[in-house]
Amino acid sequence: MSSFTPAQSDDVSIATIRALAADVVAKANSGHPGAPMGMAPVAHVLYSRFMNVNPKNSKWFNRDRFVLSNGHACALQYVLLHLLGHKLSMDDLKAFRIEVTTGPLGQGFGNGVGLAVAQAHLAAVFNKPGFDLINNFTYVFAGDGCLMEGVASEAASLAGHLQLGNLIVIYDDNHISIDGDTAVAFTENVEQRFSSYGWQVLHVDNGDSDLPAIHKAIVEAKLEKNKPTIIRLKTTIGFGSKQQGTHGVHGSPLKADDIQALKTKFGLPADQSFYVPSATYDAYAEIGKRGASLEAEWNSLLGSYGHKYPQEHAELLRRISGELPANWEQSLPVYKSTDPAQASRKLSEITLTSLAPVLPELLGGSADLTSSNLTKVKGSVDFQPPSTGLGNYAGTYIRYGVREHGMGAIANGIHAYGGIIPYVATFLNFVSYAAGAVRLSALSGHQVIWVATHDSIGLGEDGPTHQPIETAIHFRAMPNLAFWRPADGNETSAAYLVALKSRKTPSILSLSRQNLPNLEASTIEKAAKGGYVVHEVEGEDLTIVSTGSEVAIAVEAAAKLNAEGIKTRVVSLPCWFVFDKQPQEYRMSVLRSGAPILSLEALSTAGWAKYSHEQYGLPAWGASGPYQKVYEKFGITGSNIAVVGKKVADFYKQRGAPVVSPLVKAFTI
C-alpha cells in the first residue's frame, strides 16, 4: 500500500468509468455526467487499491464505508455497481453497498462523520488486544457545492474536534457549480478552513491523471490516526468531453456525437453503449476476490474472539443483527394517575435512565441543550477523544454543540453504520433547522429518535421566536416519520416503545417544559396505538381530541361539560402516523360517528380536519410570558374550552343532520 504500482488495466478501467458515466446519463436523458467523469481516476484508485469490500456480501460489518456526498454523482454509483458484477438497477445499489448517497448537497458529508463516529465508538466498546475487529475507514466524495452547505461545515467542525482519524474526505475541486465557475460565489481557502477545524489537509494538483499522487495522498491520509483528512483533488469536470471544464457538462446529458468522440479518444468502440472491456471486468473481479478473502480472515478472527470473549461476542452479534434484548420493554416506566405531575421532558429523562442499562446501543446527544433537554443519563461518559480528558470513544453521550442540522445528518450516518440507535435532542422549534436531515432520515429509513423539548407556548417567557406553531404539522406531513406528542408518563413510555421497535422509521418526541398530570385511563399499551379514549361516555354530544399538554385541559373541559349535562368524550391522539396504521374498526371506535369532534392543540390547527369537525388552536404566533398567562391569552383553558365545546355541541344538535366521523370517506382514491 505504501507505493503505487501501475497496472495495465488502470487506463482502460478509468476510460470505461468515464464512458459508462456518459452512457448512463444519456440513456436516462437526465443526470450529471461531469463529476463522475472527472472523478473516475480517484474512484478507480480507491476501489482497486484501498477499499475493503466484498461485493458478494454487502452486510460484512467491517467493510469500508463509501459516501457520495455530492448528490450529482449517481452515475458513478451505477458504474461502480456494474463493474463489480451487479446489474444496473437502483434496487441493487445496496448490494454493492455505497452506504448512503444524498440529493441535497452536504448531507452525505454529515453522514460520513456519523459513520466514522459509529466505527470509533464500536471499536472502543468491542475491540480487545489482538482482536482489532472493527477498524474500517469511511471515505467520502464531496464537491464544491457540498462544502458551501452549512450542514457540511457543522459536521466538519465537530469531526475535527472529535479527532476522527478514520474519516477521509476527497474533495472534488473542479471549480464548477450550476451557475458556472465557482469564482462567482465560492472563493474561500478551503484548505485553511479545514486546517482550522483540526483536519489534516492534503492536495493533489492533477486529479485527472496523476494516479501515483492520488495513491500517495490516500496512503498518507490512512496513516494519520488523530485527525480526519480532506484531500483537495483538482479535477476537470466532464474530462474527455467537448465541454470539459464547463458548467455545460455539469447537469445535462452529453450529445451523441460528443459521447462517440469521447469513446474514440479513449480507445473504446464508439458505436457501443455500456461497453466494458474484459480487462476492466477482470480488474474489478480481483477487487471482489480480495474483499472475499479479507472477509474470510475477519470471520476467522471473529470466531477466535468468540472463544475468548463469549459475552462480548454474543452482544456484538446481537447489535449487528439489530435485534433488541429480550424483555427490554419491562424497563419502561409505568405510571398511575396518583403519581406526581411532571414535564414530559423529565418523563423522557426517566425513561432514558431506565433504558440505558438494558439498551447499550443507545448513543445520545444534544445540540448544546443538555440541561434543558434532560438527555444525559446520570453516570454516562461523554463520547470524546481520550486525549482531551473529557471522555472516551466508548462514551455514550455526544456533545454536538449548536449544530442542529449537522447533528441530524451525523445521526443518520451513525444509524447507517449499524449496531447503534442514535437519539439527538434540541428544542422542537430548532428541529426545523435540521429539517433537511430529518427528511432524509424518513426517506432513507434511518431510525433516529429526536428528543424535542419546549414544544409549545407552554415554554413561556422565551416567546414567539422559540414557541413552535407550525412545526408539528410540517413533520406530521412527512412520510415515514412518527411525530409523538405524549400527554403523560405512560404515553412517553409508549413513544419510546414504538420508536425503538421501528427499525426503519425516525421519530420525533415532542415534549413539554411544564408539568403534566398522569391521566386516569392511560396505559402504555393503549398509547402505543397512537390514539385511544381517555374518557368514555355513551350517547355523547361531543368528543374532544387532543395531544400532549392540552389533553389534561380537554379532560378538565369535559368534566365541566358533563356536569352541565353535555355528554363529552375525550380522546388522546399522541401520534397520527401510528394511529393511521391501526385497523379501521379500531380507529372508528376512537373517533366514532354520532357526535361532533372538536380538536384542541396549542399549535397550528392545520391537519386536524382529518380527525375533527371543528378545530381550536393558535391562529398565529404565540406570546411571551408565564405559560399559564399565555394559555389564558389564547383561551386554552378548561373553562374556555368548555364554552367552545358547548357551542359546537349545540350547533350540531340544532342542525339535526347525522354527524359522520371525519374518518369516513365518501370516496377513496
From TrEMBL:
Binds 1 thiamine pyrophosphate per subunit. During the reaction, the substrate forms a covalent intermediate with the cofactor. Binds 1 Mg(2+) ion per subunit. Can also utilize other divalent metal cations, such as Ca(2+), Mn(2+) and Co(2+). It is an enzyme of class 2 (transferase). Its cofactor is thiamine diphosphate; Co(2+); Mg(2+). One of its GO terms (biological process) is pentose-phosphate shunt. Thiamine diphosphate binds at H72, G103, P104, L105, G145, N174, H250, F430. InterPro entries: THDP-binding (IPR029061), Transketo_C/PFOR_II (IPR009014), Transketolase-like_C_2 (IPR055152), Transketolase-like_Pyr-bd (IPR005475), Transketolase_bac-like (IPR005478), Transketolase_CS (IPR049557), Transketolase_fam (IPR033247), Transketolase_N (IPR005474). The keyword Secreted does not apply. CDD domains: TPP_PYR_DXS_TK_like, TPP_TK. GO terms for cellular component: cytosol; nucleus. It catalyses: D-sedoheptulose 7-phosphate + D-glyceraldehyde 3-phosphate = aldehydo-D-ribose 5-phosphate + D-xylulose 5-phosphate. Substrate binds at H32, H250, R345, S372, H454, D462, H466, R513. Residues 342-518 form the Transketolase-like pyrimidine-binding domain. The active site is at E404 (proton donor). Keywords: Magnesium, Metal-binding, Thiamine pyrophosphate, Transferase. One of its GO terms (molecular function) is transketolase activity. PROSITE patterns: TRANSKETOLASE_1. Its EC number is 2.2.1.1. Belongs to the transketolase family. Homodimer. This is transketolase. The lineage of its organism: Eukaryota, Fungi, Dikarya, Basidiomycota, Agaricomycotina.
